[in-house]
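Final report, Chapter 2: Outcomes

The project's central promise was a pipeline that accepts a single protein chain and returns its three-dimensional structure in a standardized token representation, suitable for archiving and comparison. That pipeline is now operational. To close this chapter, we reproduce one record exactly as it appears in the project archive, with the input sequence first and the structure output second.
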Amino acid sequence: MAQESASNATSPPNINPVTMVRLGLVQMGLGIMSILTLSVLNRVAIDELAIPATIVGGSLAMYQFVAPARVWFGQLSDAYAIGPYNRTGYIWGGALAFAVLAFVGLQVVLQLNASVESAGWTFPTYAWIALFALTFALYGLGISATATPFFALLVDVTEESERSKVIGIVWSLLLVGIGVGAGFSSSLLEGMNDTNLQPYLNRLFTIVPAAVVAMTFVGTLGIERKYSRYWQRSRLAQRGNKVTLRDAIRILRANRQTGFFFIYLLVLIVGLFLQQPVLEPYAGEVFGMSVSQSTRLNIFYAVGSIISLTLTGFAIVPRLGKQRTARLGCLLLTGCFALLIASGFAGAPAVLKGAVFIFGLGLGVATSGSLGLMLDLTTAETAGIFTGMWGLAQALGQASATFLGGTLLDVGRLLFGGEQLAYSFVFGIQIFGMLVAVVLLARVDVDEFRASASRAVERVMASDIG
């Protein structure tokens, strides 16, 4: 009743830059967590503990393979509030869950290594592998419960004219989080060696997740109450209708543009992040970098991305439009992956660092254009459902990239023998993926999407009346 009354009151105020920065703290926390799992834990498991890359990549990828739950969490946050608000309770609960599970995942990896050393590849070891995968599947549910309602909250609290600014600030802070996570993790890991590995990692995986939970609370406390326009905009909410999961699937299936954009995002994310599970091992095996040194590569990537996101939002998107901007980003990234290959053959760490910086620049351009399209491809009534769908595409893309990156590296080693050629094989696949994404992007049409989505919502409303 309180929300229904709010919907009849004056419109909520527009969010200000301070509020945008607060919202960005949630993304910043997710960026920090990505460093903890996909960078630090991945590198330690593969290089320090000598667990096969396919096992590590496949287990870590489980947190993304549960991504279909994103659509469900989006639908839940559209239809069912926790307490007085639709989004905030899901965001907080998910953050608490993934923080605890990250620490549990570390303990499982350490026990897996101990089992390999004491019992070899026997049943207990395979049981630890299964638990490793299960832990990160549950971790993924926590990420989904936070990320999807958060993206829906961004739609709820903004007008279209504000969203380019929100994208620039919030996603820049995601990348700041990656940089902060890399720098902080690197400093906490200084002095780590084979004899003190566990206490150093335990300290890192205790301090950092606790800080991320605190950032999530600070970033969202009171935001939905003050700024949300969900109950004013949604025809279904005003009538007291709830979009069921069945209704959500009907709305998604009714729009062919949903499929076009989903496939584009999937290919783009796979092409972008195949190198994520192999870049730090590449730095270690080909360039001889330590764990601390290879972790710092993420700082170059984050700085390039932050610069690019800011410039793109103010200078490139207004001139080229969102789709042309995304296409430009894809083409820049093909050049970056070619430079990564060249840096290894040249044996030049400086070129590697430059390539990672350029990757950040290209990523910022591609991300800014694609995120603008993503927020445009939603409706007021089903913001959670559609952001869940786009989150599903991103998550499946990242899961596939995490798993395929390690697998393709192992395949490259079998095919070519040498480490440089094996890693070059992975980067070459990324070049091909970026070119495919450019072709797929040409089929996306925002106007057609909005018309089809509106008709689908009207049919749901009509069926409820019937």
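Archive annotation: The first helix runs from residue 2 to 8.
This record, like all others produced under the grant, will remain available to the consortium after the project formally closes.
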